[in-house]
């Protein structure tokens, strides 16, 4: 009858459960962090340390969080926590963007439903409603961000609508006003006829749009050569609505042009046999196809430069468009499509505007802010630009100017808020000059002095700054910081008086910028030095990108617990044209450098196939709440660090399932460590010098990982660190070290040096691993820390998050040992493969039944000399042979052809305690035990007596 020795085995014991239950447990951990005021503890603890400041780019306060928010905020939290645990003072202050159209639209929507007109509402009352809307969503988003485990100063975040922020925004704009770089001008800007305001580049997105295309004749009125007389220049455009604003035609000086004489045309063609058309030579055949010209001849060829001095009539000459239309050289003209000519409407295009300015052409004002042609526009007054195409075609046909028309589906600018198409429209706006004070050069130098991660970000933003026009900072809306500007009625010049600007900024700081819209504001701010009747008060607001671009001035500079410049800015890659861009210009324009030392970008979230972005319209949206309510926020956090976020990230339920498997591997590793450290004390600890080689190899791996962790944190490369930690847990620990040492930990005597050494290493591995994982899976790491270090009396102020990463001594490094164990592990893999094959063939049950014979090269056998190879291979015996030829049927692992294994059964009986098959089992005092187990059980019996 066998004896049950189970109670004599040191089995794992821990309260750390295998099943995480994160959705239930994480809110409890959050509550504990709040009770202990973890954020304030970290600030007090790290006071005086080197600062690492990640400045938060403000999300917009107008809805529940989406997965893009989660990606961004989790990544920020991982970075901040990691640098805090690197021994720095990594203070994180979250913020919100509050002004602008999305909120204004929501409030207007309420008015429309009630049949009210927003313009009839007192602006101060309207702005109050906008502010309350933003406050509501800030409170909601704050709770949601904290649910993701993000730690920061949630009690004192920053907002762009805070009075102090509005005052500082006014001061920053005043700096540009006083140095002369802020000016009023009329230029074409991206304009939303739906929202009735100018838009910044960062507020524009591109969608497919179907446009009417037209080919139009511009009759040549005056030509520098006879070949052009009585001919017409043909233009092609996808924006027929801009034709009333036409004032010139552009050509390419190096392009070859032809005078094409029509000799035959299709019955339905608008081309006329005998007429002469001027077109780029490379596009002549295409024009014939588009216009239904069935036969033609080339009457003349000439380079574009020969068009100098050519003047055309407008197609509607004699119908109110009786002005010359000169042909002008333009370096933007190409032969990619169209006719090789570009019709120029200086009020409706960037290139058009600058070409007109260069040649003294006045910019016509043709379209109002609502998209309607103004009353003075001949033929089309009152028409809407997006509905006028049929009328344009009719008017062109009436005068014989239309050569052809069609349609084109192409990428077209739209508002990112209303999703409505935009127009370029000439409007009076306030601009910051890129040239007057050298802002462009300063910004380019600052870009070169900044660390960009990935490095491609530098080139991207540099190309934008090199070519960007002056910055339009005014908007024709109500919810925002008003431009603190008075304009002298007689001279048209803005008032540049620092005393007045200070008075305005101080008032904004004390009362909020609503005071600008209250009665008597002009008299109050101008004071006694200026007559109010001599000045106009500007009611435009500052564009919101200036608001957020100035955050560093009223957050980083204003708080003693932060610093300027920031160590890091981190947002999506679209912010090269958004927040990174505007912050750069504000910093360089007022302080001479960028407000950041480094900039990190992440990609966007795609569906699981990586084919399209997540969107509600496509039905592929998963919200952060969906995940944390089901699986827990730590799964989301692990997804973020497991992905290469320098590129776009795939996301979906199957991916989350894979992440869940990785999480379980990490959790089970922590659980194994905790279970086998039960009862461990300092008295049990073994000095490194007295440890077996296997333990010293594990410490060498910890040294490796420590170096990697610090490098990855510096490089913001958490994807690599996560993969290495996962591999360490799965391969180095679970499949190797834990597998080998399980026998010693379970079955050796409590005071056996080998078991003590193993438990010492488990303690070190636990301490390092739980800290390295803390920035990633912050809830689980804290739970694992409490499972070992929590107060048994119930005090709950212990946490891993106020610890730093352990200092790994260089004495743990042992490259020679690592090289030796690389060979040992290779041999072990071959043995493991042979054992698995034998089990599959049912020639073997457990690996401890085996006695493998291993044929290996001499250097591999030599590397194994002196090591307990049977223990390492988890067999009961083993034989290594470095000479002779192995049997032909010996097992060889793919990739390890030099190691051959023959598996036989071990001799002896199975020990009823450790399960090894040994010859001496049954020859000792206790039935069914081997010598080692007999001794251990004997000592336990004596101790019990």
UniProtKB/TrEMBL annotation:
Q: Could you say which EC number(s) this protein's record lists?
A: 6.1.1.5
Instruction: Kindly list the GO molecular function terms attached to this UniProt entry.
Output: aminoacyl-tRNA deacylase activity; ATP binding; isoleucine-tRNA ligase activity; tRNA binding; zinc ion binding
Q: Entry's SUPFAM superfamilies?
A: Anticodon-binding domain of a subclass of class I aminoacyl-tRNA synthetases, Nucleotidylyl transferase, ValRS/IleRS/LeuRS editing domain
State the name under which the record lists this protein: Isoleucine--tRNA ligase
* Keyword annotations: Aminoacyl-tRNA synthetase, ATP-binding, Cytoplasm, Ligase, Metal-binding, Nucleotide-binding, Protein biosynthesis, Zinc
Organism equals Roseospira visakhapatnamensis
Span of domain Zinc finger FPG/IleRS-type: 908-935
Q: How is the cofactor bound?
A: Binds 1 zinc ion per subunit.
Chain ranges passing through the membrane: none
Q: Where is this motif: 'KMSKS' region?
A: 613-617
| List of residues binding ATP | 616
Short motif ('HIGH' region): ranges:
59-69
PANTHER family found in the cross-reference section: ISOLEUCINE--TRNA LIGASE, MITOCHONDRIAL, SOLEUCYL-TRNA SYNTHETASE
Q: At which positions is L-isoleucyl-5'-AMP bound?
A: 571
Written domain comment of the UniProt record:
IleRS has two distinct active sites: one for aminoacylation and one for editing. The misactivated valine is translocated from the active site to the editing site, which sterically excludes the correctly activated isoleucine. The single editing site contains two valyl binding pockets, one specific for each substrate (Val-AMP or Val-tRNA(Ile)).
Question: A GO BP term, please?
Answer: isoleucyl-tRNA aminoacylation
Q: Name one Pfam family in it.
A: zf-FPG_IleRS
Q: Which family does it belong to?
A: Belongs to the class-I aminoacyl-tRNA synthetase family. IleS type 1 subfamily.
Query: Where located?
Result: Cytoplasm
Signal peptide, first to last residue:
none
């Amino acid at each position: 009858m066998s004896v049950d020795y189970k109670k004599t085995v040191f089995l794992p014991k821990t309260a750390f459960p295998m099943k995480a239950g994160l959705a239930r447990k994480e809110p409890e951990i959050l509550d504990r962090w709040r009770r202990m005021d973890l954020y304030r503890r970290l600030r007090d603890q790290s006071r005086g340390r080197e600062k690492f400041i990640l400045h938060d780019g403000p999300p917009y306060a107008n809805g529940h969080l989406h997965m893009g928010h989660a990606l961004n905020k989790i990544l920020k939290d991982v970075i901040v926590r990691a640098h805090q645990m690197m021994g720095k003072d990594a203070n994180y202050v979250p913020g919100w963007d509050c002004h602008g159209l999305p909120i204004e639209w929501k409030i207007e929507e309420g008015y429309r439903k009630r049949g009210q007109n927003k313009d009839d509402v007192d602006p101060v009352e309207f702005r109050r409603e906008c502010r309350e809307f933003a406050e509501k969503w800030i409170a909601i988003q704050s709770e949601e961000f904290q649910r993701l485990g993000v730690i920061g100063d949630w009690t004192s975040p920053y907002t762009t609508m805070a009075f102090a922020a509005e005052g500082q925004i006014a001061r920053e704009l005043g700096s540009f006003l006083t140095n002369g770089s802020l000016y009023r001008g009329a230029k074409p800007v991206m304009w939303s006829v739906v929202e009735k305001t100018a838009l910044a580049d960062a507020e524009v997105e591109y969608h497919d749009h179907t446009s009417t295309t037209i080919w139009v004749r511009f009759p040549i009125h005056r030509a520098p050569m006879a070949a052009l007389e009585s001919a017409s220049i043909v233009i092609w455009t996808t924006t027929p609505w801009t034709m009333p604003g036409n004032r010139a035609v552009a050509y390419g000086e190096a392009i070859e042009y032809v005078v094409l004489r029509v000799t035959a045309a299709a019955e339905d063609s608008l081309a006329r046999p005998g007429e002469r058309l001027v077109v780029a030579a490379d596009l002549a055949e295409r024009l014939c196809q588009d216009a239904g010209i069935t036969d033609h001849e080339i009457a003349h060829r000439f380079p574009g430069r020969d068009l100098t001095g050519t003047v055309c009539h407008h197609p509607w000459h004699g119908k109110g468009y009786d002005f010359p239309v000169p042909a002008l050289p333009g370096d933007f003209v190409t032969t990619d499509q169209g006719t090789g000519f570009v019709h120029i409407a200086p009020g409706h295009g960037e290139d058009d505007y600058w070409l007109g300015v260069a040649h003294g052409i006045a910019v016509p004002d043709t379209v109002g802010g609502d998209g309607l042609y103004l009353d003075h526009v001949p033929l089309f007054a009152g028409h809407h630009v997006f509905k006028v195409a049929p009328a344009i075609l009719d008017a062109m046909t009436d005068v014989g100017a239309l050569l052809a028309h069609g349609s084109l589906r192409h990428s077209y600018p739209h508002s990112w808020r209303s999703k409505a198409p935009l127009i370029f429209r000439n409007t009076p706006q306030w601009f910051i000059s890129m040239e007057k004070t050298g802002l462009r050069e300063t910004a380019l130098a600052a870009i070169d002095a900044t660390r960009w991660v990935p490095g491609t970000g530098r080139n991207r933003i540099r190309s934008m700054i090199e070519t960007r026009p002056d910055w339009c900072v005014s908007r024709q809306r109500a919810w925002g910081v008003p431009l603190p500007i008075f304009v002298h009625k007689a001279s048209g010049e803005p008032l540049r008086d620092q005393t007045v600007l200070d008075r305005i900024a101080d008032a904004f700081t004390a009362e909020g910028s609503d005071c600008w819209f209250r009665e008597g504001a002009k008299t109050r701010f101008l004071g006694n030095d200026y007559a109010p009747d001599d000045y106009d008060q500007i009611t435009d607001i500052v564009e919101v990108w200036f608001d957020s671009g100035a955050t560093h001035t009223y957050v980083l500079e204003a708080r003693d617990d932060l610093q300027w410049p920031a160590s890091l800015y981190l947002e999506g890659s679209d912010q090269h044209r958004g927040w990174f861009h505007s912050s750069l210009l504000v910093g360089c324009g007022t302080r001479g450098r960028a407000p950041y030392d480094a900039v990190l970008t992440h990609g966007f979230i795609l569906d699981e196939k990586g084919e399209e972005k997540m969107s509600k319209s496509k039905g592929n949206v998963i919200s952060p709440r969906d995940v944390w309510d089901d699986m827990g926020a730590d799964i989301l956090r692990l997804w973020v660090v497991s992905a290469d976020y320098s590129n776009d990230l795939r996301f979906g339920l199957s991916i989350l399932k894979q992440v869940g498997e990785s999480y379980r591997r990490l959790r089970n590793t922590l659980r194994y460590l905790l279970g086998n450290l039960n009862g461990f004390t300092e008295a049990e600890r073994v000095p490194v010098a007295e440890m077996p080689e296997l333990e010293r190899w594990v410490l060498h791996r910890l040294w490796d990982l420590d170096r990697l962790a610090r490098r990855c944190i510096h490089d913001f490369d958490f994807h690599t660190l996560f993969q290495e930690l996962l591999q360490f847990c799965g391969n180095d620990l679970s499949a190797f070290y834990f597998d080998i040492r399980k026998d010693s930990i379970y079955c050796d005597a409590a005071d056996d040096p080998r078991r003590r050494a193993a438990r010492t290493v488990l303690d070190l591995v636990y301490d390092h691993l739980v800290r390295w994982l803390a920035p990633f899976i912050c809830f689980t790491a804290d739970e694992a820390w409490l499972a070992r270090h929590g107060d048994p009396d119930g005090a709950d102020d212990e946490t891993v998050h106020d610890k730093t990463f352990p200092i790994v001594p260089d004495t743990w490094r042992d490259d020679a040992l690592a090289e030796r164990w690389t060979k040992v592990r290779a041999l072990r893999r071959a043995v493991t493969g042979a054992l698995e094959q034998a089990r599959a063939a049912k020639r073997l049950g457990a690996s401890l039944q085996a006695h493998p014979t291993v044929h290996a090269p001499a250097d591999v056998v030599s590397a194994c000399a002196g090591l307990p190879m049977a223990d390492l291979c988890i067999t009961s015996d083993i034989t290594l042979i470095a000479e002779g030829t192995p049997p032909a049927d010996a097992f060889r692992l793919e990739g390890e052809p030099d190691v051959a294994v023959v598996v036989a059964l071990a001799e002896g009986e199975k020990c009823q305690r450790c399960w090894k098959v040994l010859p001496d089992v049954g020859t000792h005092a206790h039935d069914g035990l081997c010598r080692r187990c007999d001794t251990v059980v004997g000592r336990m019996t004596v101790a019990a007596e």
